[in-house]
Design brief:
Elements lengths: L8 E6 L8 E7 L2 E7 L12 H5 L14 E2 L8 E2 L2 H19 L4 E5 L5 H15 L4 E3 L6 H10 L17 E5 L3 H4 L1 H12 L3 E5 L8 E2 L2 E2 L2 E3 L6 H14 L5 H7 L2 H11 L6 H8 L3 H13 L3 E5 L1 H4 L4 H14 L9 E4 L6 H6 L6 E2 L3 E2 L3 H11 L11 H10 L4 E5 L3 H4 L3 H10 L2 E6 L11 E4 L8 E4 L4 E5 L11 H11 L9 H11 L8 H7 L1 E3 L43 E6 L24 E4 L1 H6 L7 E6 L3 E8 L7 E5 L7 H4 L16 E7 L4
Parallel strand pairs: 6-7, 6-17, 8-9, 8-13, 9-12, 13-14, 17-18, 18-19, 23-27, 24-26
Antiparallel strand pairs: 1-2, 2-3, 4-5, 4-19, 10-11, 15-16, 20-21, 21-22, 23-28, 24-27, 25-26, 25-28
Bound molecules: iron/sulfur cluster.
Iron/sulfur cluster binds next to helix 1 and helix 6.
């Protein structure tokens, strides 16, 4: 029995875990948070929650929190606690010194999808208006950057097309490369309810996840493809739809570029895209692909939900385009119950992209090369904007190793643990003259930092998060910042230490600046958010209450574009030395690298990372259930315990990456998406062998 006492007050705020964006009442006694109660008026969750949002907030008050700024001359020196002014002056002097010696482009920032829109906006503004370059990138680089490219190219904007309510009107749900049960549990509940009511389910995933089958529902088709072959499978579905006459021609004539469509038909109808032709590559029986395609095209309202199993591939952007093509081919866009819906992993992936974190885009997905857009921000910020796109995270790291990129401000992101090819990330960080880590904890990246600025948890600040359905939710301060300042204040202090004269006194003023410069946010104010509860962008004169469904009358870009999707095999090949394919995912009770969930006082959150391996592959290697095994790739190796299961097919192994000891990213490669450099986390050729343990 947990004695929580009687709450004295409550504050409505938004969960800081996944992109569902559940809202909670934080119940307080004095300055102590005693309980998080799912808020029945939360439009994404309607009173529901999962274990993470409800119970895993103990990290916010964990003893590991660093509450004093710290600096050190060299990364081999011990940390020295200093005052905020001393830390900020030290950081500003170093960054200014680097730019004076190595040029304007020698420093940059990484924003976080964990932080609020307002904080993210300020960090990219720091790069553009203070560093005077576009060297800003976001941790969305390593998750949903292909969504930005793929949906931007085909539909004109990088966002899910539907609201979550829409799932209640779908007849067919096509889930690709996602396991909503573990990753987006509250959305999964709504999907499962619809499935229990009779909607049909198609899952495309190498692994038989919990989302494939559960109480009172079961996927009509589970296409257990070989990792890395999404494009071949989705294109084969399009081939079936086109060659069997299942296209919605009226929709295409009315809404899409007809000439491009005809070129696309010529391409996709080619026999090389037929399910029978790709069977050997994908490992999926042709009749399964044909049946799934027919169901998607003819089963009524068909909605696509996808996750990182789509994006984190060398053809991540191509798969997003292939998915967008499927929806246009069948007219499944622009009304309730249909659409293309990226399930965002972190609470503010959508927002961090919206806020101009990418090196080629200013807020609102407008290219830095566009002089009219630059003029808007030049007028607002009073500085010239660099017209050339800046460096992406992998480019920053490469440039650091080469010696031309020497200073980094990294807010709320542990790139050493999260990004692929750990050795390369470490070498890059070690080569820099100034690494500023702004975080709650001394994370792995901080081992290479010269300045540590204590961060604030979501309970300690005002702001907004934008969820996977473009819903802007308020984050409200529940308690005072433990280190004295909210994150947006720290960024402002750093900017001012470098000579800027920012004077925001509340995040609502930052949102006012966002609204004044970004048309899709023009109607967003904190007052309106308080009145309406939340707002889905675009929100402006055309849509004063926001926009639950996008592309209703026409696509944002005008006519929808069909783009060819040629399957190209990944460079990551299996062979005699590395004969198995590793893919990765997460479990319900853990979250990403576990920085928050591992700091929660409940044994349920401490399940170790294990390696799922098919019993046949285990037997041929002399491995029994629970044995220690060595997992080795061309990049590195680690040790973990074996879990023998037929959830994975022979030839495929699977693990999670919630614990730093597992070091899953020591294993992953430096292959990445051709368009966006999103790392290919989901396909690594590996060998598994018995081990005596770590
Ligand atoms: Fe938080 Fe996502 Fe769970 Fe909702 S589903 S409580 S947003 S982790």
């Amino acid at each position: 029995v947990i004695e929580i006492g009687t709450p004295e007050r409550s504050v409505v705020t938004t969960c800081a875990y996944c992109g569902v964006g559940c809202q909670f009442k934080a119940e307080m006694r004095g300055d102590e948070l005693v309980r998080m109660v799912p808020w029945k008026h939360g439009k994404a969750n309607r009173g529901h929650s999962c274990v993470k949002g409800r119970f895993a907030w103990g990290y916010a008050t964990h003893r590991d929190r660093i509450l004093h700024p710290m600096i050190r001359e060299r990364i081999t020196d011990p940390w020295r606690e200093v005052s905020w002014p001393e830390a900020l002056t030290f950081a500003a002097d170093r960054m200014r010194g680097i730019q004076a010696r190595y040029g304007r482009q020698s420093v940059g920032v990484i924003t976080s999808s964990r932080c609020t829109n307002e904080e993210t906006y300020l960090v990219q503004k720091l790069a553009r208006a203070v560093f005077l370059n576009n060297n800003t990138d976001t941790c969305a680089r390593v998750c949903h950057s292909p969504t930005g490219y793929g949906l931007g190219q085909t539909y004109g904007t990088s966002a899910g097309t539907q609201d979550f309510d829409s799932v209640e009107q779908c007849d067919v749900a096509l889930v690709i490369g996602a396991n909503p049960h573990a990753g987006h549990p509250v959305f999964a509940s709504r999907l499962k309810k619809r499935l229990r009511q009779g909607a049909r389910l198609i899952v495309i995933d190498p692994r038989r996840t919990e989302s494939v089958e559960g109480p009172h529902y079961k996927a009509a088709h589970h296409l257990a493809l070989r990792p890395g072959t999404n494009v071949a499978v989705v294109s084969a579905m399009a081939h079936v739809i086109v060659t069997e006459g299942l296209v919605n021609e009226a929709f295409i004539r009315a809404r899409c570029d007809w000439d491009e469509y005809q070129e696309y038909v010529e391409f996709i109808a080619d026999p090389r895209h037929a399910p029978e032709a790709v069977e050997g590559v994908t490992g999926v029986a042709a009749d399964q692909i044909r049946a799934a395609a027919r169901l998607y095209a003819t089963g009524g309202n068909a909605a696509i939900y996808y996750g990182l199993g789509v994006t984190e591939h060398s053809q991540g952007s191509t798969t997003v385009i292939a998915i967008a093509n499927l929806a246009m081919l069948t007219g499944n866009i622009g009304r309730p119950g249909v659409g293309v819906n990226p399930l965002r992993g972190q609470n503010n992936v959508q927002g961090s992209c919206d806020m101009g974190s990418f090196p080629h885009e200013l807020p609102g997905y407008r290219h830095v090369k566009n002089p009219e857009v630059r003029a808007i921000f030049e007028a607002a910020w009073g500085v010239p904007i660099d017209p050339e796109p800046g460096l992406r995270i992998p480019n920053m790291l490469d440039a650091a190793v080469e010696g031309t990129f020497r200073g980094l401000y990294c807010q709320g992101e542990d790139i050493l643990q999260s990004d692929p090819d750990t050795k390369h990330v470490a070498a890059a960080l070690a080569a820099m003259d100034c690494v500023i880590v702004h975080d709650l904890f001394l994370n792995e990246t901080a081992n290479y930092a010269h300045v540590f600025l204590p961060g604030s948890s979501f309970l300690e600040k005002d702001g907004t998060f934008t969820n996977a359905e473009r819903r802007i939710n308020r984050v409200r301060r529940v308690m005072a910042p433990k280190a004295g300042h909210a994150d947006w204040e720290v960024t402002q202090m750093l900017a001012n230490a470098m000579g800027a004269e920012w004077a925001y006194t509340h995040p609502s003023q930052i949102m006012a600046e966002i609204a004044a410069t970004t048309p899709s946010f023009a109607g967003v104010t904190y007052d309106r958010l308080d009145q309406l509860g939340s707002i889905q962008w675009p929100c402006n004169d055309d849509a004063p209450e926001g926009t639950p469904l996008m592309h209703v009358e026409g696509f944002v870009r005008g006519r929808g574009r069909f783009i060819r999707t040629e399957y190209v095999a990944t460079d990551e090949r299996t062979g005699p030395r590395y004969p198995l394919l590793l893919t990765t995912g997460r479990i319900l009770s853990q979250y990403n690298v576990g920085a928050q969930t591992r700091r929660t006082a409940n044994v349920a959150w401490h399940a170790e990372d294990v390696l799922e391996i098919h019993p046949h592959d285990a037997e041929t290697r002399g491995i029994r259930h629970g044995d220690w095994v060595r997992l080795a790739s061309r990049s590195g190796e680690t040790t973990l315990r074996a879990d023998l299961t037929d959830r994975v097919a022979p030839g495929v192994v699977y693990t999670t990456f919630h614990h730093p000891e597992t070091q899953a990213n020591v294993i992953t490669t430096d292959h990445s998406d051709w368009a966006t450099n999103c790392p290919e986390y989901k396909v690594t050729a590996v060998q598994v062998s018995p081990s005596n343990g770590p």
